[in-house]
Amino acid sequence: MVASSGTYIALARPLRMGMCMLATVSPGARLTFFAHAQPVLLSHKCDGSLLDLEFHYSTLDTREHIVKLWTACRKAMAMSLSFQQNHSPSKLPPSPRARHDRFQSDLVAKRLLSGPLLEISVGSEGKKWHIHHNLLRHHSNFFDENDLVDGEEKRIKDGKVDLTKEDPNAFRILVKWLYQGQIEDVSKLDKDKKWDYAWACQNLYILCEHIGIRELKNLAIDQFRKGCYETRLVPGADEIRPVYERLPANSPFRKLVGRIAARQLMDPDSRRDAAIYRDCFTAAPDFAIDVLNAIRDGTEGLLLDDPTEGNSCRYHEHQNGETCYKTVRFQSNK
């Protein structure tokens, strides 16, 4: 298998659910692999050093397809290493410490990408994913059968996990991070895809709160903020509600959306009515508190006019739009 530029592609081990880890390739490469007369299509997304690959296969003879694909990938990797050794400038041999670290890293990777697979049902349609159990346990105690609080219901039953309440797009980002150690940068996406990705990152944050992956939560909230900034869009009431329904009271994401809503209400150019958040205020009183606190903090202690002083007419009731200025008469001093 050769990239269009002539550079051999080095593929990591392809996994059963349809993901490859990393590849070294020149920009713009394309690749199609045929196994058992069934095309295995590899989609590409290349930044010059990494290639994000996905392959799709028929459910028939799946194991045979994977074996054939893996065999071809190993051959391509060997060819790539040989090519690089023959065409790269001479380098000093790695130090004993570097060799040891590389060896330990390879051992960890081999352990995490071995063993049984968990079947995870995701989204309302229950899409099935098969993920290495060792890899999941490495990142989250949620997938450890022994990490249960007294009386807590088992999360894993017969090698299966139910995550049907979670967003499939968010879970897809999680899988990418598990096997590639990174997620996409919203800045590199097309303009019409930025907000959808930001919304998926909000749901990813909620998913990671549920399964307990703090590192990915931080990446998700960063991409969400960047997506809001670059699209000049902000979450509405329907998008804010799940943040308060599923995240704890001390969640940074709650603080973030509370400040976003407060800024919308304080923007003199938009003059939005707070009623747009009425349903959120009703369903999540904490949201109203966060918005008020954000306004207080944002005004830096600026004190409003004293309502007990000055014109009293604003607090009077009148008929037909009259005001006190029209009805009050003053006696002459003469």
UniProtKB/TrEMBL annotation:
**InterPro entries named among the record's database cross-references:** BTB/POZ_dom, SKP1/BTB/POZ_sf
Q: Which Pfam families match?
A: BTB
Stated name of the protein: BTB domain-containing protein
Q: Which residues form the BTB domain?
A: 118-187
